[in-house]
Design goal:
about 290 residues, alpha+beta, 10 strands
């Protein structure tokens, strides 16, 4: 069973990129969309294993009971304004992708990635069986693409994601002086796919991601603009929190010591008053 927890090219891609004909230039313009920057959320999608895949896989590897393994993935798009090269139907070049957060080779667990583009594109269904799992195209409109990740263990149901390809910065939906910058529009999501009780062989494959060579995008400009995912920010936040806690603890200790001192002074004063009161009573009795 897999669970996806969401916290977001190719000069060599299969087949030549066909030029858009006048009939194919009816690409959907999602002008109502809002471009966004790199984001994450905590949504979780749970899928069940495929019921009839065991015979297909031929893998008799046992499942590991009480075991979970997490495969971090990133999916998204990066769009570049074409500037002087732009025309009415080709204003941007964009790349839609699935990758490892730090360029890990996902092919250890991913058998193929199927990208479903808008039907106005030639060959709107693009299937890639080797990394980098990415598609690069040119167009003028924003739209939602479907990404289907098929795992190497066919008993694990494919993960299906939708992703909105954004061409414009947040809040903008068409070409203006503010949208013709050379800065790319990055719209990316970080996910963690959790496999529960995976097959032993599949688990062993997933464990190899850290030792395999990194995978780079076919598009250098895309590679340069990939967001990075490291523990540095978390470490800085933890250190800042630790310093804050130490400061607060010091203040609390200081206040407690001051309170103890005040209590001692009050007790001494009460004892003194009590003693003086007792002396007065004794003197009165003697008279």
């Amino acid at each position: 069973m897999t669970a996806t927890k969401r916290a977001s090219a190719s000069s060599k891609k299969q087949g030549k990129r066909a030029d858009r004909s006048s009939q194919q230039q009816q690409q959907y313009d999602g002008s109502g969309g809002v471009a966004a920057s790199t984001t994450s959320s905590d949504a979780k999608i749970v899928t069940a294993p495929a019921a009839s895949s065991a015979a297909v896989s031929g893998d008799s590897s046992p499942r590991l009971a009480n075991t979970t393994v997490c495969l971090p993935i990133v999916y998204g798009s990066i769009a570049f304004f074409l500037g002087k090269k732009a025309d009415e139907y080709h204003t941007h070049q964009w790349t839609l992708y699935v990758r490892g957060p730090n360029d890990e080779d996902l092919s250890v667990g991913v058998a193929k990635v199927v990208f479903q583009l808008h039907p106005s594109f030639p060959q709107p269904v693009r299937e890639l069986t080797a990394p980098p799992f990415e598609v690069t195209e040119k167009g003028w409109g924003e739209f939602e693409a479907t990404i289907r990740i098929v795992w190497r263990d066919p008993e694990e149901k494919a993960t299906v994601l939708t992703h909105g390809i954004k061409l414009y910065p947040p809040g903008l939906t068409n070409i203006t002086a503010s949208t013709t910058s050379k800065e790319p529009v990055v719209h990316e999501f970080y996910d963690e796919v959790v496999f529960t009780n995976p097959k032993e062989s599949f688990h062993r494959q997933l464990m190899r991601t850290s030792v395999l060579p990194r995978i780079k995008s076919h598009e250098p400009a895309v590679q340069e603009n990939f967001p990075t995912y490291t523990d540095e920010a978390d470490l800085k936040a933890m250190l800042a929190a630790q310093k804050f806690l130490e400061k607060e603890i010091g203040l609390v200790k200081s206040r407690l010591l001051q309170a103890d001192q005040e209590v001692t002074e009050i007790e001494d004063e009460l004892a003194k008053i009590k003693a003086e009161g007792g002396s007065s009573v004794s003197s009165s009795s003697g008279k």
